[in-house]
């Protein structure tokens, strides 16, 4: 167990991108916590909804059953709610009879769920499944996963920064003038009928890893469509979600019901486009793990306010303001006000900092 713990911990601080990190963590944990299949998703910390999935061995039938029957109604809430009770490693089978039924129908009688949270917000969720003849998870396995949670969580946050940096290096940074939308149309049975070239390009970047869906759509898109159809048309006309592609680029997807046809059935129109900076402000500022207060003070520093001005505006002592600046600099990896401003500006965060956390 100790050798596995050290191996996984090393992976978490190795500077991997998000996809590589999730694959490495799963592979290195396997000798101590065996599984037959897994799905490891990143999540939008502002909503808790999954943004991208890396999987191994999960069939398209099981994936569709998950997003259509379990995720919107059971699993999404459980992955967010259970950690608030102080439990981050648990089994969905103990808490959700429908989940037990669906997994049993696909040959799985054991399951472990790991919720990864930072500052009370879900940043990732990892589901490990075992076949009918496998033994139940041991206490030592759960204990190992609990020890690894802080390291894997920090690894996911660091990987998000790596993805963001790689996207910028490839010319992936998006500005207000470069966020053209693509259009995806699904029929009443949620089968794609129209996919514009831009939609195809954006969706290719959003494609999950290790899942071969017949329609080529990411699980998060299926979940968005299911969520829209589950709400009465007179209550909500559309639904939206933010997703992060393999490139590190963030996207905004908005789905809406079309007018009913002669049979009373509705198609769904999904507009997908790269997000502009203001739409991912809170996500980007969290990449460095800044607290709410640190983000407020960093924003004031970026606006050129003095320590005394910041202290008066926030009702703090100048000494406390300086402590927050030092902590923010430490997390970002710079020294001093000038370096802090330069780092935030050149990473593309300058237009984001003045917005609410």
UniProtKB/TrEMBL annotation:
<dbReference type="GO" id="GO:0003677">
    <property type="term" value="F:DNA binding"/>
</dbReference>
<keyword id="KW-0238">DNA-binding</keyword>
<keyword id="KW-0804">Transcription</keyword>
<keyword id="KW-0805">Transcription regulation</keyword>
<dbReference type="GO" id="GO:0006355">
    <property type="term" value="P:regulation of DNA-templated transcription"/>
</dbReference>
<feature type="domain" description="HTH luxR-type">
    <location>
        <begin position="283"/>
        <end position="348"/>
    </location>
</feature>
<dbReference type="InterPro" id="IPR036388">
    <property type="entry name" value="WH-like_DNA-bd_sf"/>
</dbReference>
<dbReference type="InterPro" id="IPR000792">
    <property type="entry name" value="Tscrpt_reg_LuxR_C"/>
</dbReference>
<dbReference type="Pfam" id="PF00196">
    <property type="entry name" value="GerE"/>
</dbReference>
<protein>
    <submittedName>
        <fullName>Regulatory protein LuxR</fullName>
    </submittedName>
</protein>
<dbReference type="InterPro" id="IPR016032">
    <property type="entry name" value="Sig_transdc_resp-reg_C-effctor"/>
</dbReference>
């Amino acid at each position: 167990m100790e050798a596995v713990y050290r191996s996984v911990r090393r992976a978490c601080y190795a500077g991997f991108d998000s996809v590589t990190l999730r694959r490495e963590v799963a592979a290195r944990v396997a000798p101590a916590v065996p599984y037959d299949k897994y799905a490891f998703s990143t999540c939008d910390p502002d909503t808790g909804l999954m943004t991208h999935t890396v999987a191994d061995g999960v069939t398209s039938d099981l994936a569709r059953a998950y997003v259509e029957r379990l995720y919107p109604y059971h699993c999404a809430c459980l992955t967010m709610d259970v950690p608030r009770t102080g439990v981050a490693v648990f089994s969905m089978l103990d808490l959700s009879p429908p989940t037990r039924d669906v997994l049993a129908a696909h040959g799985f009688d054991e399951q472990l769920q790991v919720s990864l949270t930072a500052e009370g917000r879900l940043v990732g969720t990892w589901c490990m499944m075992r076949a009918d003849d496998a033994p139940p998870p041991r206490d030592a396995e759960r204990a190992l996963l609990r020890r690894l949670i802080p390291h894997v969580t920090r690894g996911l946050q660091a990987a998000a920064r790596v993805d963001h940096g790689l996207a910028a290096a490839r010319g992936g940074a998006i500005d207000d003038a470069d966020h053209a939308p693509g259009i995806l149309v699904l029929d009443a049975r949620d089968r794609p009928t129209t996919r514009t070239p831009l939609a195809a390009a954006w969706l290719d970047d959003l494609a999950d890893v290790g899942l071969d869906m017949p329609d080529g759509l990411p699980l998060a898109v299926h979940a968005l469509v299911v969520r829209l159809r589950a709400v009465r048309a007179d209550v909500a006309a559309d639904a939206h979600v933010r997703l992060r592609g393999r490139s590190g680029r963030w996207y905004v997807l908005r789905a809406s019901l079309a007018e009913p046809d002669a049979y009373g059935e509705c198609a769904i129109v999904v507009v997908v486009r790269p997000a502009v900076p203001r739409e991912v402000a809170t996500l980007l500022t969290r990449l460095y793990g800044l607290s709410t207060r640190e983000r407020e003070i960093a924003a004031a520093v970026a606006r050129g306010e003095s320590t005394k001005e910041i202290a008066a505006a926030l009702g703090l002592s100048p000494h406390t303001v300086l402590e927050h600046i030092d902590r923010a600099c430490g997390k970002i990896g710079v020294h001093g006000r000038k370096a802090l401003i330069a780092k935030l500006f050149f990473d593309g965060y300058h237009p984001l900092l003045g917005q609410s956390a």
